[in-house]
Write a structure and sequence with these properties.
Elements: H1 2-8, H2 12-45, H3 53-84, H4 89-116, E1 119-121, H5 125-137, E2 146-148, E3 159-162, E4 169-173, H6 174-179, H7 182-197, H8 200-230, H9 245-282, H10 285-295, H11 305-311, H12 317-331
Parallel strand pairs: 2-4
Antiparallel strand pairs: 1-2, 3-4
The chain binds zinc ion.
Zinc ion binds at residues 191, 195, 271, 274.
Length: 340
């Protein structure tokens, strides 16, 4: 693949780009059976999927195309850095990767999400008014709530806060709007506002910074170590050779695999914070418990403690309902006008 890239273009910057395209096509084809099983067959088996094969394949190809462009840019830039800065590339690489990740977070609600789904402003005042009132009560200066047609792919209910700076926004998916009660929508919005007010997007970025810097330090060590042992056998010339990419992916996969419980615990901790914030903001413990039951369609309700620690990026349904009912028992009387 490296030799082919060199035959296609003389420019080293583009050689890395071409190598990336070849690599992505090859791995797309090789992993396609498991992708089809995971993303299509099993989803249908559980009654969660709403797409037929044609549109599903269309989404896969769109994803591949975005991978060509975004992946190609960062890979080519990183190789250019390695070629020029043989000793300090990992520091600059971490810096540039972080800038790139920030850029992707910034553009994703405006340029990436709309590739797969239609994102529209919610216009129904029956839904938006209570949400915007809650937003004002919590110091969120948004004027708009967005809706995404997630039912195009699945029956899953969800909502999220995405973007960064001016593109930061709250989005509800249409499954939540269609299937959730008003109390449930309020409870979920309270949770999302928790993410917003508690600055979780910025905290996630700080967490990513640590992960990325440690990752590049480990990569530098891992690549040197592997090349000293097997470089010649694998016909990888040196660290700036695009043919090193599969080794980079292997090392990165090991890194992120080992980090799974840590990154999940980081996310799960924020989710628990948002849950508490959401209960206080929405005062809808029943709605929140109902949402947890709905999410039980695709999340195991009561995992064991080790299972939760390793695999769960949200509190379990059991914990969420328990927390909501405890909140109700201990706090709801405060909102009751008959209480003295
Ligand atoms: Zn959340």
């Amino acid at each position: 693949m490296r030799d082919l890239a060199e035959r296609i273009t003389r420019f080293r910057f583009l050689q890395a780009f071409v190598y990336w395209i070849e690599y992505l096509i090859l791995t797309f084809v090789l992993t396609f059976p498991i992708t089809l099983y995971e993303g299509y067959l099993r989803e249908h088996k559980y009654g969660l999927a709403t797409q037929t094969l044609g549109p599903w394949l269309g989404d896969q190809f769109k994803g591949l195309l975005i991978g060509f462009i975004l992946g190609g840019i960062i890979v080519s830039v990183l190789f250019a850095i390695v070629r020029r800065l043989r000793r300090t590339w990992w520091i600059w690489g971490a810096f540039v990767t972080m800038l790139f990740l920030t850029f992707v977070v910034l553009i994703s609600p405006v340029y990436i999400q709309p590739v797969f789904n239609k994102v529209t402003r919610l216009n129904d005042p029956k839904i938006t008014q209570p949400i915007l009132s809650m937003a004002r009560a919590n110091g969120i200066s948004t004027k708009d709530v967005y809706q995404i047609d997630a039912s195009r792919q699945s029956t899953r209910m969800s909502a999220n806060v995405s973007g960064f700076g001016d593109t930061m926004r709250i989005t509800l998916n249409d499954n939540l709007l269609r299937r959730g009660s008003p109390e449930e929508v309020q409870a979920v919005m309270g949770h999302e506002m928790g993410h917003y007010v508690l600055n979780h997007i910025y905290k996630d970025m700080m967490f990513s910074l640590i992960i990325v810097v440690c990752g590049f330090a480990y990569l530098r060590w891992g690549l040197d170590w592997s090349l000293a042992r097997w470089g010649e056998k694998w016909r990888i010339r040196d660290i700036a050779d695009p043919a090193i990419l599969p080794l980079v992916v292997l090392l990165a996969s090991i890194y992120f695999f080992v980090l799974t419980p840590i990154s999940n615990t980081q996310t799960r901790t924020e989710e628990r914070e948002a849950d508490m914030y959401g209960l206080n903001a929405s005062r809808q413990p029943d709605g929140f418990a109902q949402a947890a039951i709905h999410l039980g369609e695709y999340r195991k309700m009561k995992p064991g403690p080790i299972e939760e620690w390793i695999f769960f990026d949200h509190p379990s349904g059991y914990d969420r309902i328990y927390a909501a009912m405890r909140w109700k028992a201990e706090n709801l009387k405060l909102a009751d006008p008959g209480y003295h």
